[in-house]
Amino acid sequence: DSGVTQTPKHLITATGQRVTLRCSPRSGDLSVYWYQQSLDQGLQFLIQYYNGEERAKGNILERFSAQQFPDLHSELNLSSLELGDSALYFCATRSGTEYNEQFFGPGTRLTVL
Amino acid sequence: QQPVQSPQAVILREGEDAVINCSSSKALYSVHWYRQKHGEAPVFLMILLKGGEQKGHDKISASFNEKKQQSSLYLTASQLSYSGTYFCGTANRDNYGQNFVFGPGTRLSVLP
């Protein structure tokens, strides 16, 4: 158990809908990273927040947005969903040590029908 | 900017050894290795830092060649539990301390 929690575990929705994925980092971790992993694909970095501020942006679509709240939990909002958005979405936090290793949450499996 | 991993997939018998390679076109500050079992989250294995520091797993070793901008992960006497997809993540001067970029993964299957 990494200490990172994500809800919900599974989400099934229809095209055109909007969903919100939630992530709670480990106690004391200030960074949150979001990744998308399509079926049998690699990890695509979406966006990073650090202590409430956006720090880095990857291949995140304009239909997607994220934020990190004062209590450090983060939400990833996906709107106007398309079939191709079906994927596993992971959040991860980074240790505060010089090694910067990441700890991944269990993921949210999104299925768009 | 995505690192290249080789091989794409490898099948072993229990007890055999394997090497997974990761290379980058940019100068590297650190290389991270993660293992992901099907349907689960990636789990941290190993980090190698510029200058030779290493932190990681007691049954898996790795090397980091800064000049060649590449890292290799060595799995010796493979166990069934080693099966999964191995990802390297690289950090360079532009993104160090922020995100790092994952390679496409190497799928390892260990058979009894």
Structure write-up:
The complex is a heterodimer of chains A (113) and B (112). Chain A has strands at residues 5-7, 10-13, 19-24, 31-37, 44-50, 53-57, 64-68, 74-78, 87-94, 102-104, 108-112. In chain A, strands 2, 4, 5, 6, 9, 10 and 11 form a seven-stranded mixed β-sheet that branches. A four-stranded antiparallel β-sheet of chain A has the order 1-3-8-7, with no helix packed on it. Chain A is 0% helix and 51% strand. The relative contact order of chain A is 0.33. Chain A is globular and about 40 Å long. Chain A is built from no helices and eleven strands. In chain B, strands 2, 4, 5, 6, 9, 10 and 11 form a seven-stranded mixed β-sheet that branches. Classes of the chains: A mainly beta (113), B mainly beta (112). The A-B interface holds A 2, 33, 41-43, 45, 48, 55-56, 58, 90, 98-107 and B 30, 32, 34, 40-44, 47, 49, 55, 87, 89, 91, 95, 97-105.
Question: Keyphrases for this structure?
Answer:
heterodimer; A: 113 residues; mainly beta; 7-stranded mixed β-sheet; 4-stranded antiparallel β-sheet; globular; B: 112 residues; 11 strands; 0% helix; 55% strand
